[in-house]
Design a protein that fits this description.
heterodimer; A: 355 residues; OB fold (Dihydrolipoamide Acetyltransferase, E2P); six-stranded mixed beta sheet; B: 531 residues; mainly alpha; MetI-like fold; 22 helices
Chain lengths: 355, 531
Amino acid sequence: MSSLTVHGITKSFAATPVLTGVDLHVPEGSFIALLGPSGCGKTTLLRLIAGFDDPDSGTVVLGERVVAGGGRSVPARRRGIGFVPQEGGLFPHLTVAGNISFGLPRGQRRDGVRVRELLELVGLHAALAERSPHQLSGGQQQRVALARALAPRPSLVLLDEPFSSLDAALREETRVAVSAALTATGATAVLVTHDQAEALSMADQVAVLRGGRLVQLTDPRTLYRRPGDLDVATFVGEAVVLDAKLRGGLASSALGELPYEAAAVAVPDGPARILLRPEQLRLAAPRPDGPTARVRSVDYYGHDSRVWLDLPGGVRVSARLDGADLPAAGDDVSITVRGTALAFPAGATASEPVA
Amino acid sequence: MLHVDSPGPPREQADRGSRASLRGRALRRTPLTLALAVAVAALALLPLGYIAWYTADIGWAGVRELVFRPRVGELLWNTTRLVVGTVACCAVLGLAAAWLVERSSVPARRVWHVLLVAPLAVPAFVNSYAWISLLPGLDTYAGALLVVTLSYFPFVYLPLAAAFRGLDPALEETARGLGLSGWAVFLRVQLPQLRVALLGGSLLVALHLLAEFGALQMLRYPTFTTAIYDQYRATFNGPGATMLAGVLVLLCLVLLVAELRLRGRRGYARTGRGAARPVRPVALGSFTAPVLAGLGALVALALLVPLGSLGYWMLAGAATPLDWAALAGTTGTTLALAAAAAVGTTALALPTGWLAVRARGRLSTLLERSTYLGSAVPGIVVALALVTLSVRATPWLYQTVPVLLAAYAILFLPRAIVTVRSAVEQTTPLYDDVAASLGSGAGDRLRRVTLPLLAPGIGAGAALVFLAVVTELTATLLLAPTGTTTLATAFWSASSALEYGAAAPYAVVMVLLSAPATVLLSSDARRGLTT
């Protein structure tokens, strides 16, 4: 296993810039998720790291070895990077065993020991070894694809949206199996995904890509708690974004006077934008002193619920409630806020405001 | 109800858009493949270059004198209406038969598949001999249309059957779910995906027909090829034959341009996950009996009539003793030539077929079209060109087997390329990337991934070339080294002398030799049949 360092990577297709100066460091043995919306360049970055494409400029370093940039380009086959494509990409003309042993040295291919070892590692029964790919479920195909990628003991494993084609139950199960296998091998891994839940739950570090640029690289908790800007905030989770006036350590908003912390940069007193997460909102019977709202609708999920609220100023926010005691549409409720808000400069906007 | 987008998973599309620019990369990364494809195109264009050079040599006055005359107009009309009629008939028959065998509940689908490929084992000129020797009145347009269609429809049927097998049934199910009827599913979902195979097969039929000589000569239906042959035989007069060939090449050019405009630019690699699931056939219900009758009639006309006729002449000719030694020697020669040509031609088709899909663009299209163009030159002109060029440039090659094999390659490259290309279209570049990431080099990938995935296509291509060479008449007639007789040329000399009985044994051996390759073609297809 080795670390991965990407420095100043740029890449354009025809006249369209896809990546503009991306820097990224993945320490040895860690699991990083490249998170971003469609078209942010994350798959392109993955292909550059794998060696399927060459960057226009910048370097890719595996451990101590420069594999791309500075006038050299190590071909994909000499990089020792495992690759798990979106749809598994199992060779249809080979059995499961044939697929897994594909990257092994010739002498080890016939030997079933390594294949059994890898099947066990990804949580599949050894009896599947002689099956054809089309006889496997989607989740099994993905696990075999991972086993195939891990077989030659790569220094780095790349996963290109490996769970996006699976249904929810299978996705969860496959995620767990893949995480366990990656942890067991201590592999350095890069996962490309547009699913924030997947990124937050699986990775040690999450790199948020936007418009060909890396906008934030941090651990999942910090990313969710202290996103670098409102765009990232709304991308990694549901958000309540309100206009506020900062004064004397308190933010005055439609939800009342709230304690706040500044996000990435210090925000001066005066007009600002504040971020809350829906689970910070608590509802109670209406009181004359606190802010009140009218319940517009309730989305019930079983384990929790989302309550859509209309504030007096015409602002709509959502609250996440886990209690069984839910208000009904049309009810008037009072709102209290737990914890602190995160303050952003007044001009800050979220591209896809959720609330 | 309020609808707000949650930060859930939007579909990844823009990232995939970058794939479009991979074609440039593909060309840059395959200089060797590119060089090979260029060499193949150059070989294919050799006869054409000869015609062009000859035309320039005789000048405009010569061209005007030789081309602008009523005789050429007559030939043009004959050739055009025969090509249009045959392609239409073959497309309808091939499409209907392929759908019935691959997608309907017609009983005994395996048997029908074999029977529908089997007419390929009977060369067009043998089929023609079989019909005309029984019904001498067939020397009309309708007769030619009938005989040629029965000989050529498998060229459309085969790629279509393979394409049906490559279709993702999920797409059809989705369309059904959208409320489309079975007919609408066929028109709006299947047909667009089958377009490449349908056009490829139709192009093959049209090109083959433009170059067909034996069958039409025997039916006394005058087209360019027969006129060229007669002119060449009568006078050994180069300019007359070469100018007629020039017109023929122009026809072919028109065809290629039309096909180019009709064929989209998109590839059809399946996008679904994993491997395709087996298909549920469409129940024919009360249509089963008429469908069986229709298929039976087609097979009877295409297979039973020629075989019956051959059987008749074998018995009728039994009065004269059969020369077994001559027959065995001729057979051995034919077999060796066909095998060598199949291997060589398919190898030559690989780089071109690969680039046509993986490095789509003007250059790869040009290279692919070059081979089509080259092969559309009638066998006699290919032969003429190779004779002339070998005499002038490489006298030691004059009247040798390598020159004959080169002629076969030039003539039959499109058959191999069409099938290789369809096979490449059904595999995705992803496998190549994955194999590379597993440490596999270019040669290793070719051996362990590309070739196994392409094997059915390559096998089909080689079989088509083998079949073609076993029964190739025109070029062999003129190019074979002195004393080398193939089954086709032996058959031709006998039947031209109206010795139908003496010709029959050679025809029977040709059919028997073609049969294994035909079975091979159909057995590969059988693998995909669900029963």
